[in-house]
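sorry for the late reply, my laptop died twice this morning and i had to redo everyting from scratch. anyway the thing you sent over, i finally got around to it. pasting the sequence first so we're on the same page, its 98 residues, then the predicted structure underneath. double check i copied it right bc i was rushing
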Amino acid sequence: MADRTQPDPEQWARRFAVLADPTRLRLLMAMHSVPGQSVLELAEASGTTQNAASQALRGLRDQGWVQGDRDGRTVRYHLNSDAIVHRILHDIIGAHHH
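ok and here's the structure:
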């Protein structure tokens, strides 16, 4: 049985695997800075194509990192509340977000 007072290496490895992809990291940084952006806005903010952004967002959504909320015909993306990921993003880009 795992000791709950010790960090879970598997959980940390999964987090770092998600953060290791530059496209996913750029999208997470963009959502951290300005929550509620569409796929098109996130693609532009992260310097990638809409198709690449859409694929990366699908993976982030499947892993529970982001959620998409429908706003008419547009889906707006937000980070899910993972305090550790939020802190990591603050360390990467600073505390600047809206």
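The longest strand covers residues 66-71.
thats about all i looked at so far, will dig more tmrw
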